[in-house]
Design brief:
single chain, alpha/beta, Aspartate Aminotransferase, domain 1, Aspartate Aminotransferase, domain 2, 2 domains, four-stranded antiparallel β-sheet, 15 strands, 39% helix
């Protein structure tokens, strides 16, 4: 019998470990950016697909749908209008690039700007996907502590000044100011002004990620950093993954044309998925404004179910806030709890969670922290999943103590 071909000697240096086979989602799934299945507007998307394909189907014969490399123009025109009303951004359709999810946007911007040895500033707790991408570039990642209003400006100024004395100018400051991931905070307008002033003073670009900003319970938010800066020195990334459906894989970059022209030189993929763009443009023009508040109401309810379940099952052993939007809750457990170890034990019991160290530049600080996504499970599944998680945590680490669980019924 012929031996199987061994590809291992051919692998490029730094190739990640092989992925495991997908065996279905866990019973209690609190990971990733999944959304509420009941609020995917399926019938409206079907209607949008039928209408737009009937009207414009022949344009699928060309790359770019006769709209050019920036993406389907009706979708970019919708975004231009939506971003003005939602985030205060004044931009034309030609200052928007459609990407295959916001992750492609992150990759394109990092490829454009970063070289090995560069320094970037980032919120201490932040998007794990960004941290893993930055690690591949071999850059110096400097975490800036957060408080309830987002990135702390005193800590940012101190770090910028320290780096200046060393002759180092960071390539950019990466921030998620509107519904921060994982904490859920919204940076107030006054602090945004401080951030922009510091960026100008220290001649540093800002990379603004707004993937969750549509999902704010009140519907009210400060202007985006991009809007406040009139687009000067700021690159903006957004997504439809959280407002419509993650599987569509449609994101976008907003930047001045001089920057987009450079990014287009890197986006050698013949354009992002055409059908997704066409359907979204047709759907969003008619239904986006009505759809998002309904989704936000459902997500806000699920957040409160999760908070109540944690209070009931963990008592005072779990510390957490009450985020004003988004799909995540950031939780602090007692220091004795090693969340990466809890992750493994919980997985064996059917509970999937995101360990805090994967979402932080300070692994020791985040060792007893975790992120739970509450958007996809149904309320009763949330309650049962938290109950199972509490039992696993009690078995492995002795907490929460049943006697300390003041909310137990």
């Amino acid at each position: 019998m012929t031996a199987p071909f061994d590809i291992a000697p051919l692998l490029a240096p730094g190739t990640p470990a092989p992925a495991g086979k997908f065996n279905g989602f866990p019973k209690y799934n609190f990971v990733g950016g999944h959304n509420d299945a009941k609020h995917v507007p399926v019938q409206a998307l079907i209607d949008a697909a039928t209408a737009v394909l009937t009207r414009e189907g022949p344009s699928l014969a060309t790359y770019g749908l006769n709209s050019g490399p920036l993406g389907y123009k009706p979708l970019r025109e919708f975004l231009s209008t939506k971003l003005k009303s939602h985030a205060g951004i004044e931009c034309t359709a030609d200052e928007i690039l459609i990407t295959s999810g916001s992750l492609q946007g992150l990759d394109l911007i990092n490829t454009l700007l970063l070289a090995k040895g560069d320094t970037i500033l980032i919120e201490q707790e932040t998007y794990g996907g960004m941290l893993s991408r930055l690690a591949k570039f071999g850059v110096n990642i400097v975490g800036i502590p957060l408080d309830d209003d987002g990135m702390r400006m005193d800590a940012l100024r101190a770090k910028l000044e320290e780096l200046k004395k060393k002759g180092v100018t960071p390539k950019y400051i990466y921030t998620i100011p509107t519904v921060q991931n994982p904490t859920g905070s919204i940076m107030p307008e006054a602090r945004r002004k401080e951030l922009l002033a510091l960026a100008r003073e220290y001649k540093t670009m800002i990379f603004e990620d707004e993937c969750y900003s549509d999902l704010i319970w009140s519907g009210e938010r400060p202007k985006s950093l991009y809007a406040m800066a009139n687009g000067e020195g700021v690159i903006f990334v957004g997504s439809f993954s959280k407002s419509i459906a993650p599987a569509l894989r449609v994101g976008y970059i907003v930047a001045k044309w001089e920057i987009l022209a450079r990014i287009l030189g890197l986006k050698q993929d013949a354009g992002s998925g055409a059908l997704e763009q066409m359907i979204l443009a047709e759907f969003c023009t008619k239904h986006f404004a009505d759809h998002v508040p309904k989704l936000s109401k459902a997500l806000s309810h699920k957040l409160q179910v999760l908070r109540e379940a944690l209070a009931e099952q963990f008592g005072t052993a779990a510390e957490f806030g009450d985020p004003p939007g988004g799909i995540y809750l950031w939780i602090k457990l007692p220091d004795v709890v090693d969340v990466p170890k809890l992750f493994t034990a919980a997985a064996a019991a059917g509970v999937a969670l995101n360990p805090g160290p994967e979402w932080s530049t300070d692994k020791a600080y985040a060792k007893s922290r975790l992120r739970l996504c509450f958007a996809n499970p149904e309320p009763e599944t949330i309650r049962k999943g938290v109950e199972v998680l509490a039992e696993v945590c009690r078995r492995e680490f002795g907490v929460p103590l049943r006697s300390a669980n003041i909310h137990k019924r």
